[in-house]
Structures are given as structure tokens and as C-alpha cells.
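Q: Joint fold for the lines below.
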Amino acid sequence: MASPMRIRAAAKDGVTEVRVLMSHVMETGQRKDSSGAVIPAHFITELTAKHNDKVVLSAEFGPSVSTNPYLAFKFNGGAKGDKVAVTWVDNKGETRTDEVQVA
Amino acid sequence: MSRFSKTLIALLVAGAATSAMAFDRYQGIGRPATTAEVKAWDIDVRPDFVGLPKGSGNVDRGIELWETHCASCHGVFGESNEVFTPIVGGTTLKDIETGRVEALVTGSSPQRTTLMKVPTVSTLFDYIQRAMPWTAPKSLSPDDVYAILAYLLNLGEIVPADYVLSDENIREVQERMPNRNGMTTDHGMWPGASAAKGGIGNGGKPDVKNVACMKDCKKEVEIVSALPDYAQDAHGNLAEQNRPVGQTRGKQTGAPSEPAGDGKQSAAAATLALANEKGCMACHGVANKIIGPGYNEIAQKYQGQADAEAKLIAKVKNGGQGTWGAIPMPPQGHVADEDIKRLVEWILEGAKAQ
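A: Joint structure:
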């Protein structure tokens, strides 16, 4: 089970800024370990961010994204106490969702 | 002047002399620091928490302060790698248990973060209090420093999100530092006796064992750049590939020269080196015109002339113009007569490199 994401969401003047730090190995599948065997690819493929139940961001990730990716985005609307949930799915089918309240 | 005031002056002088005792070597310079001044400078927080100010701060307050003062350089989660290396990351809950960061051993983390390396929480407190924020060091109150530190420790999952860090419970945090057992002092950089004898160092034993040379030692260290024999011919003759003027000259390379069995060959090589040294090669090539004529052209022109040598020696020494065009040959007064003679003989013999 992957470690939780760190999410910070702050509303200001009708715009909510969300910052997310994901915890993921993001293995490209092109690296080799010390014995020369290829390390299997393991990376996030899809990411969805929801404001309450409405999708505000949908993104496709790939092997070029770094280990433990950092993502920041803004969306219109959002008030203090609203919920922001971020979900990722990786190429092994693993998924994780974390939720915070807008501050 | 009354007798009283004379006594007073004498007393004042005596007093000044006493307080200046410690400054004997630099009379009239400086004064002892006052207690308040020493206190203002004495801000260090040691691993045994000597010097730690009283105060407390929680994680939430730390987030506020972090976003205001710290996040622009260190990233919201202490993860940024743009200005400085990341503060947070690379540690696991298992590391907190063992006190040794596994990623430092296996190299599995892409980068060494602060929390991976630092063994003592007091160092973090000291550094933040002393040097942060970068633009306004020492501007944070002790409570602010506690709060910021609490947030960082929370990011590293060392303390829970509702933690209130204070001077009272910071010792508990020390017991959870991920790399608390990662520090060794058993080397010469640490002062004092070995750990067995109650110190923290190794008794001043150096880490390197360089034995001093006691016989047949070189008197002087000569620093040269050398091209090993096997590499001499790697790129042909470097002298021909570099400009013959200016500071940088190519070295004469090629197949490694035969060991000096033939005296004449090595003498020619030495003369070529002399020509280089005296600056002749800046204007004259061995086999080509540069600014002045090539040596091959000179040798050809004066071939068979009995007085060629004397003529050329005079030309080199006093300079000349006209024989090869309008560009003059400047007088070479700085070159010794015998060197000029040697060079001219060498030119007339065909300016051989070997």
C-alpha cells in the first residue's frame, strides 16, 4: 500500500490553490538494477482531482514524471470547509485517494 | 588642580591598566565583551540541549509560518530541490524505529535529504534559529522555531499532526530521529579521547596514514604536466596543431624519441626547444612561413654561401628588413650570442627536429 499523499488546499478570492505531493516510485521500466535485470515499470497513469464531487482536474501521467511527483493547480470556486479529493491509478492497477478540507 | 582630583586620575589610570590586562599584546585595541554582548552571541543549541530556549509551537502554526517564510525556497512540503536540496523525504517508519536511515546504506533515495542525514534534532533547531529565513536570519522567535520544526518533523512522520513541540518534549523527539544512530565519532575529526576513555573522538588519530619521507627524499616538489610515453603519438604532433604565437603552444609530440644514442639528434631537438623558448617559433615555422620566412626557406636561400652564418647572426641580433618583404625582424638583443650562433647553425643545417 502506497504512503498517503500530502495535500494542501487553500481558498483565496474565489480561487482554490491545491498542492499535492504524491509518494510513488515512478519507475520507468528502462532502468536496470545492479545485477543487470530490468526494473519493471511502475508509474502513475491517471490522476483525478475532485472538488466535493465535481471533477476539476483530470490528468494522464507517464514514465517521464519524477519519483514522488509534486503537482500544483488552481480552480475557480471552492470555499473553506469544502472537500478536495485526489486519486491516482498506476499501471499495476494500484490506486490511492486522499482527501482534505479547503483551508 | 586639587590633590583630590589628582588621586582620582591616578586611580582611573590604574583601573584602566587592570581591565586591559587581558589585552596586553594589543594595547589600546578593543575591550572585553560585556555579559549582555556575550549572551546575544551565545545562541547555539547543543545536542544535549544546552542553550535551548523555553517555548513551544504546534504543527498548524508551523504550516502558517512555513507558507509565509520558508515555502518559497523549500517547497510547500519541504520537498523542493530547486534552491536547496530537499529537507523532507527518504525516511521510513522503520528508520524511525531503528535510528538508521536505510536509504543511506542502499542508496535507494534519489537524493540525501536533511531528515535523512541529521542525527540530532537540536541541530535543526539551532540552524533554523540561527540562519533562517535566508533573507532575515534570527528574525524568528523561539516559539516560531518550535512551530516550524514541529511541521518539518510532521512531514517526516516523526511526530503526529496534532503535536505541540516544546523544550520539555524535544528529548522524546530526539529518540525518534530517523538517523540518530547514523553518526560516528570514531575518527580524527572529533576532539578528545576515544569513546572507551570517556571522550567522543579517537584520541586525535588521523584518518589517513601518510608516512613522512625520511631518506632519499625529493628536495623540491616540481609541478609539471607530463604526457606519458604511450600517449605521445595519440594525436600526432601537437606543436603543429597549435598556433605558434601566444601563451599556449603545442608540445612537440609524435613517436617517442629514440633514447639519446646519437648526440647530434638530441642536440637538434634541444635547439628546437631553444627556438621555442626564445620566441623564434612565433614568427618562423620550421617548414613554413608564418610572419617571417620558414627555416627551410632560409636554409635554401643561403645554401652554399660562406658568410651566411656571420650574416644571419648579425641579422638576428640587430634585426633586419627587406630580404623577405616589408615586415621587419626585430632585434633579438635578449638572446645570448652563443644561443644565436647555435640557432643559426641549426637553421642552416636544415632545422631538424631530431
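Q: Anything notable?
A: Chain A has one domain: 6-30+38-101. DSSP finds no helices and seven strands in chain A.
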